């Protein structure tokens, strides 16, 4: 048989075609096209099939990447999909939005040897999109129906990951979410140019078709008491994520025209769904014709600047207090933003917002990197006398997220939280201080990556299943 792998020595790395910046900046469609079947096979064949697959060990889900790359190279895509799906609840989503440059691809052996990494994310996306097109996706059909009922509060990546795993085991799964659509940040936080919404909706429909019950537009503590959910179900999983925006004070912080990043992104995504969005239509959360300044350097900031470009902003600047090498966001996203016309103002931090009733400028001060802080990162320091004012009609604060006060919001006693407000949960079982109540995802670990939330959800599902199965066996033995 002709050797299918190890082609990295003769075949260069080639990513899927990326739409031209002028073209993609006018819509919210994804910017990367799919591989042709032959191209995906060729690129998968560049894998070295190394003895210690660092791509797999550096993936939070420990996906069997070398295996499904080899199957793709051999044209066995259905088997590749089955292996991909075995460890990852949402491979078509991770293939699109995971920062592969910091995870699997960044750890690729041939990348370290100078040959250019295997395009793992693009191949993962190709495998699952092909599976959907060919009809290989099937509704969840458990081998047996179990009587135990599990409630999942939060329909984001951690919650839906647990939902999928629990339903496949046969449990009766009920999802509660505050939004009118399931998906959490996958639906309302991440823009369509990174993750088109029909990709998310088709997974949710698969869950519905498999027997999962969704109760949407349901705020715990207002529409339904937390204790009522506990009384109704044998186990509860808290997977609410973290939605409270970190704020920035200073003079002028209360002016109109200053918006939290998530409010801005939710409004834009709702508009893409065709919803009526008053805050968008009256210009409050619409960048059209405006000088926009986004404060922050993470992936959420990148989503905001690129959204503003597509809304027709007059100018878009990203203000970040460190330099490019020290920013937390994906370098791939920074490059995409620069191609689309975003200006990055490195080593600059806001001091005040300028304006009468509405913001008209951001007063910023230049920074320099001083000694490392306790995390090892160099601490930014102000340069005296270096202030400047940037024109601004819309300022967007993308400084990260913190947990909401669930104990107060839900009126629940005995739920232990950390000093940061995250829910305390056993790192092995995911169980909280309340018996039968579990927690997973960002509400436990703080704002993090989707792929970590998926892992947490799967592990929580396994722990819940073990507990309920043990309890069921004990009841049978006692009868």
Task: Explain what the structure shows.
The protein folds into 3 domains: 7-133, Alpha-helical ferredoxin (Fumarate Reductase Iron-sulfur Protein, Chain B, domain 2), CATH 1.10.1060.10; 149-242 and 403-478, FAD/NAD(P)-binding domain, CATH 3.50.50; 248-398, FAD/NAD(P)-binding domain (3-Layer(bba) Sandwich). The chain is 36% helix and 16% strand. The model has no long low-confidence stretch (mean pLDDT 94). Strands 3-2-1-4-16 form a 5-stranded parallel β-sheet, sandwiched between helices. Helix 15 (299-310) packs parallel to helix 16. The protein contains 19 helices and 16 strands. It is of the alpha/beta class and 479 residues long. The chain has helices at 21-24, 37-44, 54-57, 65-73, 77-87, 91-97, 109-112, 120-133, 157-168, 185-188, 197-209, 226-232, 261-273, 278-281, 299-310, 331-339, 406-410, 442-445, 450-478, and strands spanning 149-153, 172-176, 213-215, 235-238, 244-245, 258-260, 291-295, 315-319, 343-345, 348-355, 359-372, 378-382, 388-391, 394-397, 401-402, 437-439.
What does this entry show, briefly?
This protein has helices at residues 21-24, 37-44, 54-57, 65-73, 77-87, 91-97, 109-112, 120-133, 157-168, 185-188, 197-209, 226-232, 261-273, 278-281, 299-310, 331-339, 406-410, 442-445, 450-478, and strands spanning 149-153, 172-176, 213-215, 235-238, 244-245, 258-260, 291-295, 315-319, 343-345, 348-355, 359-372, 378-382, 388-391, 394-397, 401-402, 437-439.
